[in-house]
From TrEMBL:
GO terms for molecular function: 2'-deoxyadenosine deaminase activity; adenosine deaminase activity; zinc ion binding. Residues 15-355 form the Adenosine deaminase domain. Substrate binds at residues 22, 24, 182. It catalyses: adenosine + H2O + H(+) = inosine + NH4(+); 2'-deoxyadenosine + H2O + H(+) = 2'-deoxyinosine + NH4(+). Catalyzes the hydrolytic deamination of adenosine and 2-deoxyadenosine. Its cofactor is Zn(2+). It is an enzyme of class 3 (hydrolase). The lineage of its organism: Bacteria, Bacillati, Actinomycetota, Actinomycetes, Mycobacteriales. The keyword Secreted does not apply. Keywords: Hydrolase, Metal-binding, Nucleotide metabolism, Zinc. The gene is add. SUPFAM superfamilies: Metallo-dependent hydrolases (SSF51556). Binds 1 zinc ion per subunit. This is Adenosine deaminase.
């Protein structure tokens, strides 16, 4: 039996892998204030870090999608300069490393950071520079982390092919894949087929936000028409699962396909509740999908808006569903198996970092 309790201090020592984290959703409140001052942005709803953090959390948890999306207007507004982009990326790496995240894929939409004259290539360059600096600084503090960047295209815009080309252009410099995000309803992934075809033609990886605010058609298109390697969220796959009164589950053809193909689900418990994708943490399908052996992964989505971390997301799952250290190890290995990095690198992380780390905790 483990001598390490499943509490927050112990969880913060556990090696973790994160696949779904938005750069513009994870800023430090104090950094938002300082960058706003530096760039002359005067639209913030609070003028001290504690009040601003509270506003972000309240707005994101208000149940209003309009207020939830408003939070990003403020973070994106202060990420329009080389210094701002590099600082946010650098601090992201440091904050994740401090939480014992050993591998992370952090995504952002370069097209949203052009208001002050930067080009798409410059936006990506300065962001990757910040990640590199943060990784190096974390190593000096005794924390090893590897970060891959995902470039996101906004599904309501018309730049997805351009962003896909950008992702391929920077894939040897820290970009590991491509993504589309934004409102699902009315903006099906199949409208961006040329972007996904470009990624496939160049043997490049991509994930798609699907099955969060919209149901099975979004998931079906992402997989069948677009060829997604992973599903961003994907919680609505449960629309194709029927659970009888005795607890037996019957899977439809799409759910069976997702499970059979081991298509990873980038589940974000706190965020899924905030956005209304699920009614509550207790009703989150994470446990059902885990018990049915879907490839579930634990993710933060937006650490600032959800006032969360990977350790806190794990703690919520432990408290809600009664998971133990072995379960958390399995979810972490699921994530690394699903990472957009070469197989030998994934294997090394699992065998040399994750398994030894959990062996200590499991006892």
């Amino acid at each position: 039996m483990s001598t390490f309790p499943l509490d927050l201090p112990s969880l913060r020592t556990a090696p973790k892998a994160l696949l779904h984290d938005h750069l513009d959703g994870g800023l430090r409140p104090a950094t938002v204030l300082e960058l706003a001052h530096d760039c002359g942005y005067d639209g913030l709803p609070a003028d001290d870090a504690a009040s601003l953090a509270g506003w972000f959390a309240d707005a994101a948890g208000s149940g209003s999608l309009v207020r939830y999306l408003e939070t990003f207007e403020h973070t994106v507004a202060v990420m329009q300069t080389p210094a701002g982009l590099a600082r946010v990326a650098r601090e992201c790496a440091l904050d994740l490393a401090a939480d014992s995240v050993v591998y992370a894929e952090v995504r952002f939409a370069p097209e949203q950071h052009l208001e002050r004259g930067l080009t798409l290539d410059e936006v990506v360059h300065h962001t990757l520079t910040g990640f590199d600096e943060g990784v190096a600084m974390a190593r000096d503090l005794g924390k090893e982390i590897r970060i891959g960047c995902l470039l996101t295209a906004m599904r309501h815009a018309a730049r997805s092919r351009e962003i896909a080309e950008l992702a391929v252009r920077f894939r040897d410099r820290g970009v590991v894949g491509f993504d589309i995000a934004g409102a699902e309803a009315g903006h099906p992934p199949s409208r961006h087929l040329d972007a996904f075809e470009h990624m496939r033609a160049n043997n490049a990886h991509f994930t798609i936000h699907a099955g969060e605010a919209f149901g099975l058609p979004s998931i079906h298109e992402a997989i069948a028409f677009c060829g997604a390697d992973r599903l961003g969220h994907g919680v609505r796959i449960t629309d194709d699962i029927t659970v009888s009164s005795d607890g037996a589950a019957s899977l439809g053809r799409l759910a069976n396909y997702v499970r059979d193909k081991r298509i990873p689900l980038e589940l974000c418990p706190s965020s899924n509740v905030q956005t209304g994708a699920v009614a509550s943490l207790e009703k989150h399908p994470f446990d059902l999908l885990a018990r049915l052996r879907f490839r579930v992964t634990v993710n933060t989505d937006n650490r600032l808006m959800s006032a969360t971390s990977m350790s806190e997301e794990m703690l919520k799952l432990v408290q809600t569903f009664g998971y133990g250290w072995s379960d958390l190890e399995r979810f972490t290995i699921n994530a690394i198996k699903s990472a957009f990095i070469p197989f030998p690198d994934r294997l090394r992380l699992i065998d040399e970092v994750v398994k030894p780390g959990y062996a200590v905790l499991i006892g």
